[in-house]
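#onboarding

Welcome to the new folks! Below is a worked example of what a typical request in this channel looks like: someone posts a single protein sequence, and someone else replies with the predicted structure as tokens. Don't worry about understanding the tokens yet, we'll cover that in week two.

Example request:
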Amino acid sequence: MKLELLDGEMIYHCFQGSVHGNGGIETYVKTLALSSLPGISDRIITSIENLDQKQVKLLHLHSPEILVEWRQECPVIFTLHNHSCYCPSGTKYLADRQQICDRTMQPLGCTWGHIVDGCGSRRPNRIVKSWKNSASALENLKKLPIPIIANSDYVRKQIIHHGLPAHRVTTLRCGVKPPQSPTAPLSREIHQNQRILFAGRIVPDKGLEWLIKALAQTDSRIHLDIAGDGWDKPAMERLAQKMGLSDRITWHGWCNFEQLETLYHQCFAVIFPSLWPEPAGLVTLEAYARYRPVIASAVGGIPEQVQDGKTGILVSLNNVSQLAAAIAQLATNYSQAKFMGESGQAWYQQEFTIDVHVQRLAEIYAKAIAEFRDRNQGDFSGYVEKATLNLTP
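Example response:
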């Protein structure tokens, strides 16, 4: 078999999904690979099986399926973006019980979760396939000598709980690009427009039903903009109509960059009401980059990105009255909403810009290259220095 040659001076991102999607992983991988950063190829590789891996400086894997294709001929790191390596449904959420799943992955409990608790598909073939994929990914992560990046402490604790040594797993929270258009702190005029924003997929786990019910308990001047689409949209539209909220909600559907920028600009707060334990979520960071406070559910990795009372407000899972009270609090207090937005922007500049993220990632790359060199006693002289210097934006 003839192997494809790559530029040995480059680091490559490997991802089986499409970077043309709107999901968090797609957005993150696309941002890293397509940002013209020195030392990182803008080519995203979907398979490494037929690559000449000996010539590669480092491979950054983002899909667990690719783990089996690594021949231990080059440095590799793997990022855990979600729960799929230790949860067959990928949600860690028991939908029918509206509870976070605290079970360790094992066949009986996970089958029960799918069939009885509605954590995922109830189709037998889908259950078996999901189990095999997660079990295989977890086994590979345990046996392969590669560093693991978790995008939150929550995810890190989960994978360690499922058997990975703590010293192999590092938390590195995501970064997002700054807005391309000018941004400014929340103005009194925009605050007086009394608009809030939900941006995300319209599926039950994202908590839009909870938000609509909370909206009904707020002042009638508050208007909800919904940027996103999904299979649960018709049901949510019926709920809004039933509750007499149709004139207080605007359904924008999937929004392009310019449309979403406008919606961020005209709101006084961004609502992130997920019911499932989000591994991290980029919505909070995107809000901070635009001087907007965040009202979010205290689940999964979300609390790691919301400083309660400073950059936003955390609310208990599915608590309608508490969410309504948080919205009302910022709707009636311009100074607090503005302060939280400015605090979030300052935190974003300190911790969550893509430049800060890349510099921290470069350190992980350098360490992975050095450990691979020591383990294999190969000639990798200079790689550590290059990994750091070549990634400076």
